[in-house]
Every structure is written in C-alpha cells, then in structure tokens.
C-alpha cells in the first residue's frame, strides 16, 4: 500500500548543482499541470526552494573524478540505503533521475524491482566513455529525456525509448549583444571571469592556479580585472579564503550573482569543464576550458574516453572552437597564454562569439522543462 495516501508522489535524485537547477524547473513545470504532486528526494537549494522534501543534501555527494569518489563512500552508502528504504515504503508513482550516473544507476534497479517507472533526464556521458552501461540503462530506465541532439540517435540505435527535449539552459533566453559597454568598467579595465566549478574538490584543484594566472596577467597588463564566480553550492568563505591566501590584490574579487550576469560583464571567461561552458556558449561569451582531476582518475579516464574533446561546446561543434587545457596543461603560464592569445585578436574574438552562438543553436529552443514534464506525467502510475 502506498504510504502517501493516494496523493501523487514523485522521487527525484539530482546530485550536482546543474541537475539541481534543471530539476527545480522540471518540478515547477509538473506542478503547473498537477499542483497536488508530492516531491521528495536528493537535491540542493534549488529543488528545496521548488518545494521538494530534501532527504540528502546533494552537496554531500558531489565529486569529480573516478578515485575521488572513495572519500565519499560512507555517505554514498548511507544515502543509497535511505533511498531504498523510502522507495519501498513510499512506492512513488515515478522516479526521476538527473545525470549523476555513478549514484543513479544504483538507485534505478531498486525502483525497477518494485515496479516504479524510471525517467532519466540528462543522460550520463556514456557516449564518451564506458559505453557498455547503455545495456544496463536499457534494462532499468523507462524513458530517456536527453538534452544533446546526438544523444537521441545513440539511444535509439540501442532500442531505448528516448526523446530529445532541448537544453534547459535555453529557457533563460538568448545570448548577449556585444556593445562593449558591459565589459569595461569605469576605469577602462577589461574583466575576465574565473569559474572554478561547483564542487569543493574541483575548486581546490582549479582556483589556486586560476588565481596564480590572474596575478601573472595583472603584472603584464594592469588594465585587467578578474571576478571569481561563486556557485550556489559553494560556501563563499572558501573562495574568500583562497583569494586571501594567494595574496590577490584589489583587481581580483568574487561574485555570487547569477553566472549569466558575469558573462555580460566579462570579455571572456576561464571555466571548469562542465555545464557552465554551455551557458557561456549560449551567452556568446568566449572562454578557455580547464579540466583537472587526480592523476589516477585522469589515467583511467584517458584509457576509457572515446571523444576528441573535453568541452561540451567543442563536442557539439565537432571541432575545437575554444581552447582546452587538460590536466598538466592547467598551469598559470598555460592559462595566461590562452587568455592573452584571445585578447590580442579582436577579430578572432568576434568570430568566436558568432561561432559559439551558432553552435548553441543545435541545442533546440526554449521549453525543455515543459517537454520533460509532459513525459514524466505520462509515465506516472
């Protein structure tokens, strides 16, 4: 017997900052059709603000890299046990999994064994590595809602029900107009955005070298100013402490404003590989993509990855639109070289902005959350 007394019930699991944001939009879209649905699950601030009963804070689970997950194993196992218990007692009408494959692909078998439909929104990047997991997904998932156009063909080729819904980032609007006004402050200084990621481990690996690069570039060109973006899942004091520790001067500050606003104010950004690089592309903001994990994670990943690029926008474009610095290439000198290379050529910057906006068009149009909500409502028991 259902523990929710006949009220429609949906469990949702989003273990990362971007999934938390996209999940919140999906919850809002589903509630527009059925305001009586009770939502619970794993997520962060956005899902909580959308009215989801949070059972485990996503920040406690988020990691980057293969070996880094070992430090989180105790909380991962506790969270899995809690989810299993609640799936069995609540018997929700639907389980929605958002990305976060190493955890979610352990949750899905529990739901399927009980007979709960499973909607997977935002595909794991199995087309890039560990492709064998597609067979597991085919057995466990009722429907895939994918946000990259080539993913639909990949799943369809394996006989898995799939719908390309477009990218939820496009629900926020189109790119910026390059007037030049928003990227120059009153002193005529050019702003560079630093986006070190949304997880503490990621920030600890990337932000120090970003700050070192910023200090190096300021010495070469005092007209430059830098702003570090603080993701909603990150405590401000972590960023403040790093800036202070690295002796950064007044030309380096930080901001908790939405990242779209930072794009508007920046000539270009240095960004951790991930969803934020697609946000930059949609805004038409040139970027340098950086990616760094533990040495063991990197060696394992290199042996398994089957794509030519790390950056999502480069994968979508099918060529290296923007520079990528990977692992040992992520140095102050490497970042400085790529940034100055872009700043030195106004024509290259203008062409890059145009190319980014064109590449982002293949992500579909606004309305992804509404389209996924329709699929979810149709799957509910």
What does this structure look like?
The protein is an alpha/beta fold. It contains 15 helices and 13 strands. It has helices spanning 17-33, 45-49, 73-90, 101-114, 133-140, 149-157, 200-220, 236-245, 259-265, 275-282, 295-304, 312-317, 332-343, 346-360, 368-379; strands at residues 9-14, 38-43, 53-57, 94-98, 118-121, 143-146, 162-164, 190-195, 224-229, 252-255, 268-272, 287-291, 324-326. Strand 6 (143-146), helix 6 and strand 7 (162-164) form a beta-alpha-beta unit. The model is unreliable at 63-68 and 174-181 (pLDDT under 50).
Q: Helix amount, in percent?
A: 40-55%
Rg computed from alpha carbons, rounded to a whole number of angstroms: 21 Å
Q: How would a crystallographer describe the biggest sheet? A: 7 strands, parallel
Q: How much strand content do the residues show?
A: 15-25%
Structural class: alpha/beta
By DSSP, the count of extended strands is 13
Strand order in space, largest sheet:
3-2-1-4-5-6-7
- Terminal CA distance reads 14 Å
Give the overall form: globular
How confident overall, as mean pLDDT?
A: 86
Helices and strands, in N-to-C order?
EHEHEHEHEHEHEEHEHEHEHEHHEHHH
Low-confidence stretches: 63-68, 174-181
**What's the helix count?**
15
């Amino acid at each position: 017997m259902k523990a929710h007394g006949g009220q429609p019930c949906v469990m949702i699991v989003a273990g990362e900052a971007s999934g938390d944001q996209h999940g919140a939009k999906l919850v809002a879209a589903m509630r527009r059709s059925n305001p009586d649905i009770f939502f619970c699950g794993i997520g962060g601030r956005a899902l909580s603000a959308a009215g989801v009963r949070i059972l485990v804070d996503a920040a406690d689970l988020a990691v980057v890299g293969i070996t880094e997950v070992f430090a989180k194993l105790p909380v991962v196992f506790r969270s899995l046990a809690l989810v299993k218990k609640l799936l069995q007692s609540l018997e929700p009408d639907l389980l929605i999994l958002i990305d976060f494959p190493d955890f979610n692909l352990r949750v899905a078998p529990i739901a399927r064994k009980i007979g709960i439909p499973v909607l997977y929104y935002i595909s794991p990047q199995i087309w890039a590595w560990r492709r064998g997991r597609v067979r597991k997904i085919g057995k466990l998932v009722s429907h895939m809602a994918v946000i990259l156009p080539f993913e639909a063909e990949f799943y369809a080729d394996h006989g898995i029900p799939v719908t390309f819904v477009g990218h939820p980032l496009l629900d926020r609007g189109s790119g910026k107009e390059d007037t030049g006004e928003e990227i120059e402050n009153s002193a005529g200084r050019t702003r560079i955005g630093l986006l070190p990621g949304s997880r503490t481990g990621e920030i600890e690996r990337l932000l120090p070298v970003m700050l070192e690069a910023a200090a190096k570039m300021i010495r070469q060109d005092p007209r430059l100013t830098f702003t570090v973006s603080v993701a909603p899942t990150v405590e401000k004091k972590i960023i403040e402490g790093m800036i202070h520790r690295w002796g950064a001067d007044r030309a380096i500050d930080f901001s908790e404003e939405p990242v779209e606003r930072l794009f508007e104010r920046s000539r270009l950004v240095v960004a951790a590989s991930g969803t934020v690089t697609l946000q930059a592309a949609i805004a038409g903001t040139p970027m340098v993509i950086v990616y760094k994990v533990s040495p063991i994670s990197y060696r394992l990943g290199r042996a398994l990855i089957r794509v030519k690029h790390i950056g999502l926008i480069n994968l979508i474009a099918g060529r290296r639109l923007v520079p990528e610095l990977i692992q040992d290439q992520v140095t102050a000198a490497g970042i400085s070289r790529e940034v100055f290379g872009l700043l030195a050529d106004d024509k290259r910057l203008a062409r890059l902005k145009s190319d980014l906006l064109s590449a982002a068009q293949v992500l579909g149009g606004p309305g992804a959350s509404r389209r996924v909500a329709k699929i979810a409502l149709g799957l509910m028991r």
